[in-house]
Description:
2 copies of one chain form a homodimer.
Chain A: H1 2-13, H2 16-36, H3 43-54, E1 58-59, H4 60-66, H5 71-83, E2 87-91, E3 99-103, H6 105-125, H7 131-148
Antiparallel strand pairs in A: 1-3, 2-3
The structure holds a DNA duplex.
Amino acid sequence: MQNVIKNINxxxxxxxxxxxxxxxxxxxxxxxxxxxxxxxxxxxxxxLLRRLAIKDGLAQxxxxxxxxxxxxxxxxxxxxxxxxxxxxxxxxxxxxxxxHVFITxxxxxxxxxxxxxxxEVISQFQQGISPEDIQTxxxxxxxxxxxxxxxxxxxxxxx
Amino acid sequence: MQNVIKNINxxxxxxxxxxxxxxxxxxxxxxxxxxxxxxxxxxxxxxLLRRLAIKDGLAQxxxxxxxxxxxxxxxxxxxxxxxxxxxxxxxxxxxxxxxHVFITxxxxxxxxxxxxxxxEVISQFQQGISPEDIQTxxxxxxxxxxxxxxxxxxxxxxx
DNA sequence: ATAAAGTGGTTGCGTATGCAACTAAACTTA
DNA sequence: TAAGTTTAGTTGCATACGCAACCACTTTAT
Lengths: 159, 159
């Protein structure tokens, strides 16, 4: 067991546990911020609404790619959000396999109140961090993403 | 909708989307690495095994605290791992409410093969990043964690 | 044109996760 | 010591996620 223990301490020096811990805290913080402001949205739902506000009517496979989700996951996420009337599917006329996804009025309304909350969350959690350090961190995260991205499953185009 | 769109672009300048994207990629990479090496472990299970290898026989609430998990989540994680015979519960004799969790022989074996895989994953995803930038990033993540940690639910002690 | 290959979406299955409600046990306090 | 409070763990409920299998529709190749 000695060997195992040795490697265990190696891990602690890497970015891995920090990334995990930080994401956990951040996720909790976001969930909490939404709840405190009576915004009935999960992080995943917010991300999706935001993408649709940027570009509406995307096909599900495009949304899956953009949001780094499995298409199965996206199917269910959209279904949940359709139940909540935040988005709705519209079958494509040119390609019968495709669904286009549109944000609803209600979706826009919720996004409108959710957006400043997220902006506030961001300024909170980045407090006391210099712009240079933020840039360095973004650069590092980008590099990690590239290192890890060797021919992934998400080979689809963004459109 | 103009206002909404404006804030949307603000978000992109922050660390938030980068953290999300990077974690997603990393999680996929780890899952894949385990699968390629025929290691039947999830990330959560690995983390737990590792904690137990560092200190065996912890109570569930301590493990929950250490691993940043809800105690309910931990209950189920342990149950899954008990089914896989990676760990086992042992009721405390001094406090009948408490379960101590121990890693099994099988758990140690799997951890032993899983560890070098994770070490390799780490060196892969950190490739091309200078030690200084890694330190800066850790510092930033630590700061975020602190910013976000205002009197959390995990107020228990680590033991 | 027809068979083969590829694509978009859904569903079954297993896993993980948080919150709230609950039970049993321990601790505090009047 | 009895009542009230806190703590450890479990369970119901809801969300999210990936993989694999599958169906229907398209596109490609022969």
